[in-house]
Each structure stands twice: as structure tokens, then as C-alpha cells.
Specification:
Blueprint (H helix, E strand, L loop, with lengths): L1 H28 L5 H4 L6 H10 L6 H15 L12 H36 L4 H15 L2 H15 L11 H31 L2 H8 L4 H10 L3 H25 L5 H11 L2 H29 L1 H31 L1
Helix pairs in contact: 1-13, 5-6, 5-8, 5-11, 5-13, 6-8, 7-8, 8-10, 8-11, 9-10, 11-12, 11-13, 12-13, 13-14
Length: 333
């Protein structure tokens, strides 16, 4: 199992290199020059060249990429903000906790509601309750988050004045953003949970558990839901990563000072270090999430752990067999 974990971590290295190179290449191929956004139109050509030279933009592409990557690896330095010359790392780390908290809250709400409704509807397959919640789930999946966020803002903030229009000062500030993002996540998880649970309900081990007289609650949560967790966990991890990346829209609507809002501002100003740092951090989070999911699979499903342990044991036996054969050949010689 340790070998499997080490192998998965090693696989992250080429993935991160590919993502970083892709981000850097896309920004390099974008038309225009950042100097146009930060210097006045009347700036002289010498001032423009000096501005680019000071920030390393006149260097060849691979030199810029090498300096950026080595700065991240050895100094955790993501570059300097074009707007104020300060470290991008401090700007990103100041905003990222708000984005991470929003994603966590949304994922918790979506997971609890989606899983409970998914199990509930699967246990009542082909009833009016199943049809109703399945229809509601389709509406929730199809509803754009920005549209729902605007509706919630108009109804509950501007008209009824139950919640603040923006910010993150109190618990009430988080309610509408979490609902705007959590509805879609809950609907997606409802459909995935229902499908996974239905695949397990008709299995032989469920009929055996009922024949032994097990309580229905034990059968549901221990035998059915536990064996249906693999696709559900994958969906939860994917939705959490999506909440980190797609939170920029909700952060703009509800004026949340998060990483997504910072990224939108950086794109509008062609602030390349902020764009690269924000996207790279989100990519890193997404990759780490899937690494954690791979590790969780082994704990949720004992068959996966047994498979890797069995492979390790079989390789060890093969090695011992080869050593014994080599020793025997040496003795015969």
C-alpha cells in the first residue's frame, strides 16, 4: 500500500509540470501587452521597455518559465504583482481561505442533502416521491449558479432584506452564496447517489442480509450505501474541486473577497503573475483532491486494498522463488 501511495505522488510531478507549462504558454500567446494596462498612453517607448525589463517580460519564453518554476519550488515565490510590486504569494494566501471555506460549506451542504435524498428516492423507486425528487434534481442540475445567485440576491437581500447583499462578516453573509452553489451540487449528488444505490439494492449480499433478519437501517447504510460509496466519493471530490474553481462567479455576485474574484480582476488587468499563481494553486488543489480520493478508496473498499497487498505479496513470492532457484543453481555448480 505504501508503494501505491508513493507511486501516486510521483505521478503528480509530470502532471504539475504539464499544467504549469500550459498556463504559461496560454498567457504568452495572448495578444496584447500588460504594459498597456499599467502605463499611460502617453508613456514613452523607453519607459515601456524599462517596465517590461524590470519584470522580466523581455526575456525569452523558456527563461521566464524557468525563473517562475524555480522560484515556486525553492522559495515558494509566485512572482510579483504588476499593480503594486508586492509578492503574489501574500495576495493569493490572503484570498484563498475565503474560497476554500466557501467550497467546504457548499460541499458539506450538497453532500448531506444530496446523499440523504439519493438514498431516500432509491429506496422508493418508481413511486411518486421518486418521480418528484428526480424531477427536482433535473431542475437543480440545469439551473445556472449565477442566475440562481442573482435571484436569491434580489429576493432575500434587496426585497425582503433578510440577508446582507455581500461580504463575509457574519454567518448570515454565507447563507445565500452557499445556497446558490449548493443547490446544483445537491442535485448532482442526488442523481449519482440514487443510481449507485439502485445498482447495489438488487445484489445477492443484500438479499442474504434480509434473509438473516438484519434491520433495514443496517442493510441500507452498512450493506448498500457502503458498497455504493466509490462513485459517490468520486463525485464529491469532483464537485469540491469544481466549487473551488467555479466560485469566482458567486464571489463576484456576493462581493466575497476570495481567490476567484482576485482571478477575475487579474484577468481584466492582464496581471500575469496573479493569473498564473491563482490558476496554478487551483490546479494543485484539484490534483491533491484526486490523490486523497485515491487513498480513500482503499479505506472505503477493502477489495482495492487487498488487491494491492496481493500484488505486493505475489511479487515478493516471485522474488524469493528466483533467489532460491539462483541459490540452488549455484550449489549444483
Amino acid at each position: 500500500m505504501v508503494k501505491y501511495v508513493v507511486k501516486r505522488v510521483i505521478y503528480l510531478i509530470p502532471t504539475l509540470i504539464g499544467v504549469s507549462l500550459l498556463i504559461f504558454t496560454i498567457l504568452a500567446l495572448m495578444p496584447g501587452n500588460p504594459v498597456d494596462m499599467f502605463l499611460s498612453v502617453d508613456a514613452s517607448e523607453e519607459a515601456r521597455i524599462a517596465w517590461n525589463e524590470e519584470r522580466g517580460l523581455n526575456d525569452p519564453f523558456f527563461v521566464q518559465y524557468y525563473n517562475w518554476v524555480t522560484g515556486i519550488i525553492f522559495r515558494w515565490d509566485w512572482g510579483n504583482n504588476f499593480a503594486n510590486g508586492l509578492s503574489v504569494t501574500s495576495d493569493i494566501m490572503l484570498r484563498f481561505p475565503n474560497t476554500f471555506l466557501l467550497a467546504c460549506l457548499v460541499s458539506i451542504i450538497g453532500t448531506v442533502i444530496g446523499m440523504l435524498l439519493g438514498v431516500f428516492t432509491a429506496k422508493r423507486q418508481n413511486t411518486w416521491l421518486d418521480t418528484t425528487f428526480s424531477f427536482v434534481g433535473i431542475i437543480g442540475v440545469s439551473m445556472p449558479q449565477f442566475w440562481l445567485g442573482l435571484l436569491l440576491l434580489i429576493w432575500f437581500s434587496l426585497d425582503l432584506k433578510w440577508f446582507p447583499t455581500g461580504g463575509i462578516g457574519t454567518v448570515r453573509h454565507w447563507v445565500l452564496p452557499c445556497v446558490a452553489m449548493g443547490v446544483q451540487q445537491a442535485a448532482i449528488l442526488l442523481r449519482f447517489t440514487r443510481s449507485s444505490v439502485l445498482d447495489c439494492i438488487l445484489q445477492d449480499y443484500v438479499r442474504t442480509a434480509r434473509a438473516k433478519g438484519q434491520r433495514e437501517s443496517v442493510i441500507t447504510w452498512h450493506h448498500i450505501v457502503r458498497n455504493a460509496l466509490i462513485p459517490i466519493i468520486t463525485t464529491i471530490g469532483t464537485l469540491f474541486g469544481g466549487a473551488l474553481a467555479m466560485g469566482m462567479v458567486i464571489e463576484q455576485i456576493f462581493s466575497i473577497n476570495g481567490l476567484g474574484r482576485l482571478l477575475v480582476e487579474a484577468i481584466s488587468m492582464r496581471n500575469y503573475p496573479l493569473i498564473r499563481g491563482s490558476v496554478m494553486l487551483l490546479s494543485l488543489c484539484y490534483i491533491v483532491i484526486f490523490l486523497i480520493l485515491d487513498l480513500l478508496f482503499a479505506f472505503v473498499d477493502p477489495r482495492i486494498k487487498a488487491e494491492f497487498e496481493g500484488q505486493s505479496k505475489s511479487k515478493a513470492k516471485a522474488s524469493m522463488r528466483k533467489l532460491r532457484m539462483a541459490g540452488k543453481a549455484g550449489a549444483d555448480a
